[in-house]
Write the structure tokens for this entry.
Amino acid sequence: MAPDSNPFAMPLEHVQVQPAGGNAAQRVIGPRDFAAAWAEITAWEGYAPTPLVPLPGLAACIGVAALHYKDEGPRFGLGSFKALGGSYAALRVLAREISRQLGRKVPLAEIRQRRHRDACAAITLVSATDGNHGRSLAWGCRRFGARCRIYIHAEVSEGRAAAMRALGAEVIRIDGDYDASVRQAREEAEANGWFVVSDTSWEGYTDPPRDVMAGYGVMTREICAALPVPPTHVFLQGGVGGLAAAVAAGLRQHYGADSPRVVIVEPDRAACLFESARNGRPTAVAIEEETIMAGLSCGEPSEMAWEILREEARDFLTIPDALIPPTVRLLARCETGDPAVRAGESAVAGLAALIAARKSKALSVALGLDAASRVLLIGSEGVTDPDIFAAIMEGEDAA
Ligand SMILES: Cc1ncc(COP(=O)(O)O)c(C=O)c1O
């Protein structure tokens, strides 16, 4: 096989850092934040843990001892782990606002049980999204009876926009990229008295993003309960970094010193965490071309997520888009004898990076990966856009 016919043989860009010391994994989102989100979300109708799929056949092919893939496809019927974040943050925003209006602390359960129907119906929650966060927010707004406006950028697929409209959201498509949609959502919310429920944080805006990350903690708790032994590595795909930071913090709180080595994986077209690691501070990058990994197409890191990742992550990798279709097909076709998994483009970034890393001796050594490694992967979405999935499945892998 010619080396360039196999996309996994291309060297990946890698930055290794000495993580900053500190207790961000306890301080930025504390065990109490995670516990509160767990207590609330697991009480929702339709809650069920998502599968943690062991992939022993693939592990043997790749050359690691164990591989576990947390399949977030079935999460609340919404297709991704994001179902845990935006909806929970929406509930908390509503509870805070109605508490303010009534001059007493309104418990989340009162909002959930629709005891403040009229007050909720007068509140509009807004956010920018590349699809999955908006879907979660729209779903939460419908559940709790608030109005919802979602800002999407030019490249978000029509399938993803339609899914949000079907949940009752008003969807506004703007001309620019994801970061421009974040700015527009903020500006219009300020002008109209709406509430931004964002999955990314910035100076002075931290409550909803913390709640979003606390919601993601449900996934980490389920993983820790299901894993027989701690993993040695976790490969975490990064958009703004909220997923990675929430999982890294949750694992640290659970495993302490036995927490796995955290490897961050981003598209080379939107590598803001990689650049932040290189510079030692949150760094924005310009997105010149959209990546196929739509959920990871973010040029500005979440400041709050970065606070955690600068202490918890040791390695940052970027991957080219070319790795994604073959990895989606690999999981769906299960030629290794493992259960078939139907995954979206952003879900497989960690697996794609792992396969490429194991093909390089130097990168395996640098990441401390060997035949004894036990790797955890977050399958962050299922088939959130059936047309894109079908097109990928029709493609051919290089012989
Ligand atoms: C499927 C999927 N995976 C991963 C991510 C990355 O999450 P974060 O932006 O919190 O880093 C996203 C974000 O939208 C996503 O939709």
